[in-house]
């Protein structure tokens, strides 16, 4: 984990230096950007047996390389790399039976159960904005696609005052992807992520498959 974070911070440091030159190219310019986002997380497409969840949140940071498609720089694509931490309060209960992971639901543990996820993320965006080389406050709409690679996942919950912890669950989908949208003016921008990949693979509650997906609503901040 420390090695991956060290590599990411090295990339971010280099991008800050490179950005100094990218805004001195005359009419054609780039919007190489660091980003930071905070989100409210929610599970969607839940089985009927899941009756609720607690407060969940996410933190994301990374670097996006901007590639202009027109001379003005107002239309571009962005390719990036980042780190994400997500916390989900939920009612899923993990147990093992004959060395097999079993996923069940227990409404009584919603406020004590937590899924913690550390991931590398790789965003790809189509970008439209009203900026110029010398105009740093502008409207933007970025739509795209994001792939996440899970580095670590942990589920813990408390029953009868006993803490149960399961790490790197084999049924957790390590590679996930979803649709993204960021829109707003200047520094403050609304962000949306809708996961297309089920959170768990080959999992069910009785005869009902678990197709739980992730929805994130939040704010994203860009730094040139």
Reconstruct the topology from this structure.
Elements (H helix, E strand, L loop, with lengths): L1 H21 L10 E12 L12 E12 L6 E15 L2 E6 L2 E6 L8 E16 L9 E21 L2 E6 L7 E11 L2 E8 L8 E2 L2 E2 L3 E11 L1
Antiparallel strand pairs: 1-2, 1-13, 2-3, 3-6, 4-5, 6-7, 7-8, 7-9, 9-10, 10-13, 11-12
Question: Could you explain the architecture of this structure?
Answer:
It is a single chain. The chain has 224 residues and is mostly beta strands. The protein has one helix at residues 2-22; strands at residues 33-44, 57-68, 75-89, 92-97, 100-105, 114-129, 139-159, 162-167, 175-185, 188-195, 204-205, 208-209, 213-223. It has an 8-stranded antiparallel β-barrel. Strands 4-5 form a two-stranded antiparallel sheet. It has a two-stranded antiparallel sheet with strand order 11-12.
